[in-house]
Here is the input.
Amino acid sequence: MSTLDHFSSFYRIYECGYQEPVLVSGVDGVGTKLRLAIDCKKYSVIGEDCFAMCANDVLCHGARPLFFLDYLACGKLDFFIVEKILQGIAISCKKTNTCLIGGETAEMPVIYKEYDYDIAGFCVGIVEKNHIVDGKKLIQEKDILIGLPSSGVHSNGFSIIRNIFSTEDFMNFFQEKPFYETLLIPTRIYHYPIHALLKEFLIHGLAHITGGGISDNLYRILPENLSAVVEKKKIPIQPVFNYIQKKGNLSEHKMWNTFNMGVGMIIVCSFQEQDLILNRLHLLGEKPFIMLHIGSISRNKNRYFFHENIFISGNGTNMKHIFQAIKNGKISHSMVNLVISDRWCKAIQYALKENISVFSLIKTKKKFLSKEIDNILVRYIPDIIVLSGFLSILDAEFCEKWFNKVINIHPSLLPKYGGKGMYGIKVHQKIIKNKEKISGATVHYVTKNVDLGDIILKKTCIIDSGETPISLSKKVSIIEKEILIQSINKLL
Here is the structure.
């Protein structure tokens, strides 16, 4: 309806089919992905990403996009570059039947360098009032989460990526093409699969997974009295994320709270309709994640769970304490999903009663133990591994692969009473024999050098006159429980 001579853009809303139409708006940009796109002269990606980030947000409330506007700022106007950026927007608008209604281009040489560009988009959609998707009102206990794959990194985490990789790194080949091409794959638009579902099913919630990862974005749609249990091993993590993590030596926590990790959109639905919805998605050519355990909605104070693995050899005193601390909220956002034992012990029975997956490697020879454990761990993807009285020594290759993920609690003040053979009552006997005045406990990272990993926490206790190894053991045990829980919380 409007022309370039008008000061504003016009859009006529046809009331056909809407009883109580509600306009839904979203605004977003592309972030520092812009820098990489500009450096690599991939300008159309900028427009596609800008549109996708806005349209996917509007989509989360069930709205159909009506029109889109852009704001483009630069140091010096280059019509070729502007044309490519707008081409990216126009192509995306056409795919979703959205009107590119107008925009603004600003040349600001004082603010931007000559060939620098910045972009923001503004999308307006429409939805019937009683069809608004609002997870806080619709999500119920026992609902299921279904994930739709991302096309890659999308438009978040590029400040971290640019700190890790050099210009040369971006040019190196990754999966048979320059790495920058993988990074610059445009953000996927979820318009068609989601609207196809909305026509047939009652969708309880939609979450666009952007900055903050699954946890932050899923949290935004959950009712106050509910939480989502996310089991990461069910998510098909794309190789690009493993590559970024390894190159940058990033923690699991950093990765999962920055990147989408392969999940671009999460659908929350009734468990009664999950099979029908999954079938419909498959017919649409989608590859949804079946998230029975990833997405069970249950009553709990915590919103998101990190996974702990525990290795045991004895009674599992500290393991039991960890279970109890999780139950009473002293360890937050965490669950034990695997227990591994190198011998038969009482702790196995306790873990089985807690419905934890247990692997008892009784018949595994010592030289193959680390490899066998590694084969198990790759299926469970732990955030943290706790050695709870675990007596076997893990080999150098294992310690290197799981660097900064394996922690141990030692019943003395390391490094003085550490090393091979120094465990249990033997430590306390030597300390008493040497007439030490203080003892304590130490939580440390596990490395190939026994008991010489970086110390996470330690705490001391006074050795009283007439102290025995048994009484000292009991005193230190109290400290162990305290600093082990503190260390787990610190790392998670």
In short: The CA atoms of residues 42 and 184 lie 8 Å apart.
